[in-house]
Amino acid sequence: MNTYFITATHIVCYVAWGQQRGVLATSEEMSFHLLMQASNVRRLALILSEKEIIKPIEGAKGGYVLARKAECTSLTAIYAAVEDLNPDFMGLKKMIDKAKKCTTLVKDTQIVLNNQLRRVEAEMIQTLGLVFISDVQEASLKQIEENF
To answer: What is the CA radius of gyration of the chain?
Structure first.
């Protein structure tokens, strides 16, 4: 998992909230609320658009909308869309490369760890498939209500 996934999820949630209010979410708005450069938001939004998670609406009053309903957009879809940006889950590749230079004990230990972490990633992806943007929105609204 990486920060691209977290940020992309925030982008999709922001787009969904805007859509609920009847407003298009712009990259400038999202960059303000996510405290990141608008160009980085646009880069992730482009990837999310290519994977048909969000859809750009062009024009002077343009922005983004969901490509499908929030209750049909799982976190697995977002994860799969951005995972190519940093496919080294939990630094496995780096550790494998490092272990190649180590003793047999370290190499064998790393092989066991790699297998376990790959299993964890598979379970995580399966679990993310059970969580939809609508679920995240609902939980977030409850949290906001409890804090005020």
So the answer is: 18
**Tokens 């190519």 appear where?**
84
pLDDT tens-digit series, residues 22-71: 999 999 999 999 999 999 999 999 999 999 999 999 988 899 999 999 99
| Phi, psi at 25, each rounded to 5° | -85, 130
pLDDT at 85: 57
- The CATH number that applies at residue 52 is 1.10.10.10
Quote the CA–CA distance of 87 and 138 in Å, as a whole number.
30
Task: Answer whether 75's CB lies under 8 Å from 127's CB.
Answer: no
Within 10 angstroms of residue 14's Cβ, the number of other Cβ atoms is: 19
Domain hosting residue 132, numbered range: 3-147
Number of domains in the chain: 1
Of 99, 96, 90, nearest in space to 120 by CA = 90
Spatial separation of the C-alpha atoms in residues 112 and 106, rounded to whole Å: 10
**Residues 65 and 15: beta-carbon distance below 8 Å:** yes
Say how far residue 48 (Cα) sits from the centre of its chain: 9
Mean pLDDT of all residues belonging to the chain: 85
Alpha-carbon distance of 102 to 95, in angstroms, equals 11
